[in-house]
């Protein structure tokens, strides 16, 4: 019964789903919003658009556009039929592949109104969604400016050339004059369109059909004209001088002279090339030596023009448009040609440029999916409608390329503005019944497309703003009372104006290609990622997709981006990347169950499985920390400085697990555990600790900690070091469990072969904002524990807090040691470790220090042995100078087939002194030893404890090892009565503390070896006292206990 409240009945759920309408909340069509302002709210009629009206026609209308009418003939003439087919084929296959991917995404679940943006953001996650949404928005906005420029170009060049404000005095200024006219008129047009959009979107939607009719009529007129050229080609003469095409605005007769009343008089053409109308005037060389011929601009479909137009004619800016197979004589002064009425290239042409200019004519495939809210059955209509529309337009483009090449003379094709045919639109000259059909048709279609871009783009921006993933766009989510995006419209108009100020259609087109290509690339990526990951939720209705197709589509998109203009491509990618990163850092946390999250999961799993193989090499060893935090009664973190210390130590690298144990049962403490986890996470965020949080509820604190130490982490991502704070109040509390737990934790880490770091006075540690000035980090290297003591200061100094600190290493020598030699050896060792540190050797009495080696495994032999080896093998560098075997870490006793075999360090050392050859062997053994250091050793008689080796000691030891009673000599140290040994130990602690305080009182941080706890648990309290005495008077201390393996190496 309880579950019924939170989980609804199946029947009611099904009922809700059946009545689901596709209009997302707040995205009602705006006409409805207008009509519904009255008190009674009429029921929303379910949208009823089929595939043809709802998807096919809008796509068709959006795809066919300005480029087809204004630039396709010029592209065919410049690139030749074959390369034009390559361009068209590449762009069309790119959009077709994208449409297939898009269909798969669109049919995978219900697509709310908002189209492509919603599809991508819901399947690729908010970061990609935002980046793509904004790319698509910028693309649509620039498309608006391209259509407006197209509209103005048609108006000023072909409809009312007289309306130009800037008129070129000289021919060479014509291009600039045209661009300035475009800027002025374009801005006026943009303002008008924006006002129309602001006042009444519904009129734009009503007019959509009119605009569509214009486009279709224009295309039919072209096909009709092509058929008519077979019987009688239209009469559009082109005048050639030699092989150069002439602009025939200023003359009618294509002759140099004509006969009037039996007199030979010069024509208007003559006066253009000569300095007077007289027959004996001085004329331009080229004009004098070449004849004037007239050819038909449109020879007709079966005239064989197709063979001439097969090949490309690229050239630089200002290149004359010439007919290749006509003979001509070169003039003497080509520099003056720019002042004469020749038809010239207005921009430098090359293949890749044409790709960028052509691509916008295949964009617009999203129009159907953007209307997903109005469709009767979006899942069925979007794929069929979009793919059919792309197939239709591809057919139109490919046939147009071939037909233009076959019907129109090459020089006319390359004449961008139709100057050689009295300023007619080139594609217009081909159409039937009159060029005006196409001029007017294309004018209206450009107007309509511009208006639609200006209505579509602000809606898209509003949708992105309302999603709340890009914080600085919030303002654009607001609008008029009926939801019209006013602010978004203003921004759109502003960006549009940038495009209009660029003013040249050929410069705006590549920009817009970039943004659309980015968008299509992401659609393909989304489909490919989902398919390859086999996300459980990925089951599109549309079955004819494949990841390879999506991948091919994606590659094509990237290829076309870089082909058409590599620098724009880089800029577009940088913009998308910046948006992505911005959303990642600042954006709202949105969990849309996206594919990218699945991708990270897969990658993480793969990496973890690879890590499992082997333990890390010494070179790769870094502390992977398990931080044991204490919480107070309100579940707040007691020592946040522990977390900042973690951050400083890790600098974001490696693994950090922050653990905490709750006493109780999980069923009763679940809420508190959740709260604790939240608090720890927020504390980690505040201290910038990157890592994972792990709260365990356990009936016993000790067991909980033990479970954490055993089981935290996953696979190869396990911790190898434990960081905890010193129980500062252990003396005050009556409850002995606090310090007992602490000591047990030390034992557990030792058993688990993990390193242990204990921070004393942790609350006085620096925060991440502090920057410690000049000072030192002091390392007291009493026993060798695998080099943790050396590595930690090095890692700390990577962080800005500790960067200015210097490292000092203190080592303890006994009276009979050669301390000068020891210092040299240590400096050499540090030099090989590539660590910068000052070295100091402190001398102490034998009996002052001996009890420091509380536990019998970690003796100082280890350290001295190491230095000694450095010393020994200076002559033979090639031998490994690594470290002493783990076997020799102590006098390890092992059971060996029931017999107890003693491996004595002294014996090893003696053999080393005798035969240096064994040295390498000994080192290579270092990993073969058992790690069973402290725990599994049977107590067979007292162990020997030795301080640093010297030659004399070694000899006496060697002799003694031949006597039967080997261990007698040092037995007294460990067979003392407990209180005696306690006194000894306290004495050691006091002495060592004196030395440390004397040297390191002012240090920013002191690192010390941590002696292990005693074997028998009776001495635990004494052990705590021992540590307290040892650390008295020091401010920040880090006690370090190695994990039983080498962590630092002198090898590269």
From TrEMBL:
Stated membrane topology is:
Multi-pass membrane protein
Q: Reaction catalysed by this chain?
A: K(+)(in) + chloride(in) = K(+)(out) + chloride(out)
Q: Where is this region: Disordered?
A: 26-45, 872-909
Report the residue ranges that make up the SLC12A transporter C-terminal domain in this protein.
Answer: 758-899, 974-1052
The record's annotation in Gene3D superfamilies points to: Amino acid/polyamine transporter I
Instruction: Establish whether keyword Membrane is in the entry.
Output: yes
Transmembrane stretches in the record are 55-75, 81-107, 128-149, 182-201, 208-231, 347-367, 387-413, 433-451, 487-505, 511-533, 545-569
Q: Where in the cell is the protein located?
A: Cell membrane
Where composition is biased (Basic and acidic residues), the residues are 873-890
Q: Where is the composition biased (Polar residues)?
A: 897-909
UniProt keyword ATP-binding, yes or no = no
Q: Name one GO molecular function term.
A: potassium:chloride symporter activity
Q: Which GO terms describe its biological process?
A: cell volume homeostasis; chemical synaptic transmission; chloride ion homeostasis; potassium ion homeostasis; potassium ion import across plasma membrane
Q: What Pfam families does this protein map onto?
A: AA_permease, SLC12
Q: Which residues form the Amino acid permease/ SLC12A domain?
A: 55-232, 344-626
Q: Which cellular component terms (GO) are annotated to the entry?
A: plasma membrane; synapse
Q: Provide the alphabetized UniProt keywords.
A: Cell membrane, Chloride, Glycoprotein, Ion transport, Membrane, Phosphoprotein, Potassium, Potassium transport, Symport, Transmembrane, Transmembrane helix, Transport
Q: What family classification does the UniProt entry report for this protein?
A: Belongs to the SLC12A transporter family. K/Cl co-transporter subfamily.
Q: What is this protein called?
A: Solute carrier family 12 member 7b
């Amino acid at each position: 019964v309880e579950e019924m409240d939170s989980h609804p009945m199946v029947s009611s759920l099904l009922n809700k789903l059946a009545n689901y309408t596709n209009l997302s909340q707040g995205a009602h069509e705006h006409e409805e919003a207008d009509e519904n302002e009255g008190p009674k709210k009429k029921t929303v009629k379910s949208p009823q658009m089929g595939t043809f009206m709802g998807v096919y026609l809008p796509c068709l209308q959006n795809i066919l556009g300005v480029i087809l009418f204004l630039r396709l003939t010029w592209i065919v003439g410049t690139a030749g039929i074959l390369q034009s087919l390559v361009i068209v084929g590449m762009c069309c296959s790119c959009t077709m592949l994208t449409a297939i991917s898009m269909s798969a995404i669109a049919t995978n679940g219900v697509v709310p109104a908002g189209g492509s943006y919603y599809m991508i953001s819901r399947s690729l996650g908010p970061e990609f969604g935002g980046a793509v949404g904004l790319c698509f928005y910028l693309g649509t906005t620039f498309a608006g400016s391209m259509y407006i420029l197209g509209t103005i170009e048609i108006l000023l060049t072909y409809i009312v050339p007289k309306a130009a404000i800037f008129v070129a005095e000289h021919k060479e200024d014509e291009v600039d004059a045209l661009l300035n006219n475009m800027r002025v008129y374009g801005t006026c047009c943009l303002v008008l369109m924006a006002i129309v959009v602001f006042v009444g979107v519904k009129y734009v939607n009503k007019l959509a059909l009119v605009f569509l009719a214009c486009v279709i009529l224009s295309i039919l007129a072209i096909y009709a004209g092509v058929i008519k050229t077979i019987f009688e080609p239209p009469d559009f003469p082109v005048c050639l001088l030699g092989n150069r095409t002439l602009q025939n605005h200023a003359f009618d007769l294509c002759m140099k002279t004509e006969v009037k009343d039996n007199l030979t008089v010069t024509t208007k053409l003559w006066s253009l090339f000569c300095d007077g109308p007289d027959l004996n005037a001085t004329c331009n060389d080229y004009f004098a030596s070449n004849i004037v011929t007239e050819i038909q601009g449109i020879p007709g479909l079966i005239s064989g023009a197709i063979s001439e137009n097969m090949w490309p004619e690229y050239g630089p800016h200002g290149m004359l448009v010439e007919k290749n197979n006509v003979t001509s004589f070169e003039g003497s002064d080509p520099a003056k040609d720019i002042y004469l009425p020749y038809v010239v290239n207005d921009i430098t042409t090359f293949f890749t440029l044409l790709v960028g200019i052509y691509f916008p004519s295949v964009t617009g495939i999203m129009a159907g999916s953007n209307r997903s809210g109005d469709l009767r059955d979006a899942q069925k209509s979007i794929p069929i409608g979009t793919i059919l529309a792309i197939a239709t337009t591809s057919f139109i483009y490919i046939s147009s390329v071939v037909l233009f090449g076959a019907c129109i003379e090459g020089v006319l094709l390359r004449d961008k503005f139709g100057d050689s045919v009295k300023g007619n639109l080139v594609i217009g000259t081909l159409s039937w019944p009159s060029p005006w059909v196409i001029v007017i048709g294309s004018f209206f279609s450009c107007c309509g497309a511009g208006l639609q871009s200006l209505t579509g783009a602000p809606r898209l921006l509003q949708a992105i703003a309302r999603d709340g993933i890009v914080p600085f766009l919030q303002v654009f989510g607001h609008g008029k009372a009926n939801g019209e995006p006013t602010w978004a419209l203003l921004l759109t108009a502003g960006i549009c104006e940038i495009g209009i100020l660029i003013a040249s259609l050929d410069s705006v087109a590549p920009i817009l290609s970039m943004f659309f290509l980015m968008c299509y690339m992401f659609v393909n990526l989304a489909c490919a990622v989902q398919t390859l990951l086999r996300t459980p939720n990925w089951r599109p209705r549309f079955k004819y997709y494949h990841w390879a197709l999506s991948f091919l589509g994606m590659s094509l998109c990237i290829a076309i981006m870089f082909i058409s203009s590599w620098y724009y491509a880089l800029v577009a990618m940088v913009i998308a990347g910046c948006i992505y990163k911005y959303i990642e850092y600042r954006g709202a946390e949105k969990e849309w169950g996206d594919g990218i999250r699945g991708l990270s999961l897969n990658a993480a799993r793969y990496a973890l499985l690879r890590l499992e193989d082997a333990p890390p090499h010494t070179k790769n060893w870094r502390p992977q920390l398990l931080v044991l935090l204490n919480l107070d009664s309100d579940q707040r973190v007691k020592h946040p400085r522990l977390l900042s210390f973690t951050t400083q130590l890790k600098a974001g690298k490696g693994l950090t697990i922050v653990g905490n144990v709750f006493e109780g049962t999980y069923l009763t403490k679940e809420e508190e555990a959740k709260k604790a986890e939240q608090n720890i996470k927020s504390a980690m965020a505040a201290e910038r600790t990157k890592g994972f949080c792990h709260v365990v509820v356990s009936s016993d604190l000790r067991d909980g900690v033990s479970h954490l130490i055993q089981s935290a982490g996953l696979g190869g991502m396990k911790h190898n070091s434990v960081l905890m704070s010193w129980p500062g109040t252990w003396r005050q509390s009556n409850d002995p469990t606090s310090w007992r737990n602490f000591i047990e934790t030390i034992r557990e880490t030792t058993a688990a072969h993990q390193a242990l770091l204990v921070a004393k006075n942790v609350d006085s540690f620096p925060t991440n904002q502090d920057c410690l000035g000049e000072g030192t980090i002091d390392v007291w290297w009493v026993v060798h524990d695998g080099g943790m003591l050396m590595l930690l200061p090095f890692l700390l100094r990577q962080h800005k807090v500790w960067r200015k600190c210097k490292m000092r290493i203190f080592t303890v020598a006994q009276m009979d040691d050669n301390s000068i030699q020891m210092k040299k050896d240590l400096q050499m060792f540090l030099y090989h470790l590539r660590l910068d540190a000052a070295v100091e050797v402190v001398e102490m009495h034998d009996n002052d220090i001996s009890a420091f080696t509380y536990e019998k495994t970690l003796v100082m032999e280890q350290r001295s042995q190491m230095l000694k080896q450095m010393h020994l093998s200076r002559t033979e560098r090639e031998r490994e100078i690594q470290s002493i075997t783990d076997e020799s870490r102590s006098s390890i006793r092992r059971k060996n087939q029931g017999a107890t075999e003693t491996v004595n360090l002294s014996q090893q050392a003696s053999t080393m002194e005798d035969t240096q050859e064994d040295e390498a062997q000994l080192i290579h053994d270092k990993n073969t030893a058992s790690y069973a250091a402290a725990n599994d050793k049977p107590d067979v008689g007292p162990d020997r404890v030795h301080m640093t080796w010297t030659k004399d000691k070694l000899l006496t030891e060697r002799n003694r090892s031949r006597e039967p009673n080997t261990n007698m000599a040092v037995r007294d140290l460990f067979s003392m009565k407990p209180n005696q040994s306690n006194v000894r130990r306290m004495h050691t602690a006091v002495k060592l503390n004196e030395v440390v305080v004397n040297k390191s009182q002012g240090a920013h941080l002191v690192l010390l070896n941590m002696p292990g706890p005693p074997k028998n648990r009776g001495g635990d309290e004494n052990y705590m006292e021992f540590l307290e005495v040892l650390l008295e008077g020091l401010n920040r201390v880090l006690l370090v206990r190695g994990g039983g393996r080498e962590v630092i190496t002198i090898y590269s």
